[in-house]
Amino acid sequence: MFDAVRETEKIITFIRDYYEKNHLKGAVLGISGGKDSGVVAGLMCKALGSENVVGITLPCHSKEADAADAKLVAEKFGFEFLNIDLTDVYDSFKVQVGKLGEFTDEETKNSDINIKPRFRMASVYYMAALLSATRGGTYIVPGTSNACELYVGYFTKGGDSVYDIAPIYGLTVEEVIQVGEVIGVPEKVLYRTPDDGISGLSDEDKLGVRYSDIARVINGEEVGEEAEKKIEELHRKAAHKFHTPVYRK
Amino acid sequence: MFDAVRETEKIITFIRDYYEKNHLKGAVLGISGGKDSGVVAGLMCKALGSENVVGITLPCHSKEADAADAKLVAEKFGFEFLNIDLTDVYDSFKVQVGKLGEFTDEETKNSDINIKPRFRMASVYYMAALLSATRGGTYIVPGTSNACELYVGYFTKGGDSVYDIAPIYGLTVEEVIQVGEVIGVPEKVLYRTPDDGISGLSDEDKLGVRYSDIARVINGEEVGEEAEKKIEELHRKAAHKFHTPVYRK
């Protein structure tokens, strides 16, 4: 049985211990307006004090509603809130790609979807180094992936997979929500149907499986045969995201 | 004793086996004009045929000489050679950062240096997905880090540390050069003093240690006390780039 109050305390201690041991100061993270970044931002504030946490919205041809939901999180926990609009950066990149040839939207679809989290990662790390330089002390980047997303490889390698500490790495989606309830993440953010803010589909529609079923598989519980097959197939196909083949003498 | 001819064959087999096992088609990589990307590009061509390798120069306020040296590699091995100029993308990003405040060059120095390899990684992965979509078959991204760079953490997390296969991961700088001699990497590229093309300093000056001394430490051989201390300190400080703290229940 998941004890949300106890786990929340343990995560906060885990964060605080790592910061103390390594003489770190602050955290910089992208705030999407979804539950994962909302919960992680809240946990970082509880662990470090909200004065040491900086959240960034990183719109890139995005819906304005996302930024509004992100703002709810910043207001709730009282951390500094910045905006870096990546729309021009993305458009500027697409101009360069256009010089290589004419491509259809279908052909560039996967490329277009995945470059956004990569630009976001680059931007968040840019700000982490800049705040470390201007404010003194080291700012690092917490990741916002949860155990269900990780199990099926639902992340962009080199994008949201790059981080310096992973506070909800071991929690299923349901457990992340329970922790969010304990620390008071705004309901609108916590119960929003998760989507990537890019493709227009919900995460579950895109994956073709339910997060609750992934959680069952992770916990060794029964799920329907079809769901299990699909989940294990996603898990197997994602293996390359975790294990890079390296040549050794 | 390092047998360069034999190791070269073994690396080529390692690459070919991974591609066959995973039904992959091609490779896309950034070509800097330095020895590491030159050697890896050559190895990929030997393993897959040069028709399945695409090299990209990714200038970003860069010296023109780098692109000329990169072209030498492409001509030698006969692979397709593209250019994506990131100067406008970078400038566009800096405009957005400028909206957050006024920062000195000294304050943005670390941020500016490290965002370039991150943008390069994002660009190479963009092209890998685009070529997979337009040409059929899966293109992946080989990494170009060598054992000496890895040992002291001389790479950008989320930049040149993101790749799908690592052909020279286990080779010291001297061994990379020997493999380059076996496959015929152009001398101008192979013996060029390595630098990041960004800071204006050679890698060894920037690190404050010699690659030959790092190789000795890796191989368990004697080096001077001062060099060993410096190298082990760099190694220790780079630990966070390899081990990310994750919370598990």
Task: Summarize the model shown.
The structure is a homodimer of 249-residue chains. Chain A has 249 residues and is α/β, with parallel strands linked by helices. The first copy, chain A, contains twelve helices and four strands, in the order αβαβαβααβααααααα.
Report on the architecture of this protein.
2 copies of one chain form a homodimer. Chain A is built from 12 helices and 4 strands. By secondary structure, the first copy, chain A, is of the alpha/beta class. Chain A has one domain: 3-Layer(aba) Sandwich (Rossmann fold), CATH 3.40.50. In chain A, helix 2 links the parallel strand 1 and strand 2 (53-57). The radius of gyration of chain A is 19 Å and the shape is globular. The model of chain A has no long low-confidence stretch (mean pLDDT 96). At the A-B interface, helix 1, helix 4 and helix 5 of A face helix 1, helix 4 and helix 5 of B.
Strand order, biggest sheet of chain A?
3-2-1-4
**SSE run of chain A:** HEHEHEHHEHHHHHHH
How many β strands of chain A by DSSP? 4
Helix percent of chain A reads 55-70%
Q: Could you say what the CATH architecture of chain A is?
A: 3-Layer(aba) Sandwich
Strand content of chain A: 5-15%
Structural class of chain A: alpha/beta
The most extensive interface between chains reads: A-B, 62 and 62 residues
Shape of chain A: globular
State the separation between the terminal residues of chain A, measured CA to CA.
Answer: 47 Å
Could you give a short account of the major beta sheet of chain A? Answer: 4 strands, parallel
CATH topology of chain A, by name, is Rossmann fold
Gyration radius over CA of chain A: 19 Å
Report the average pLDDT across residues of chain A. 96
CATH-defined superfamily of chain A: HUPs
How would you classify the quaternary structure? homodimer
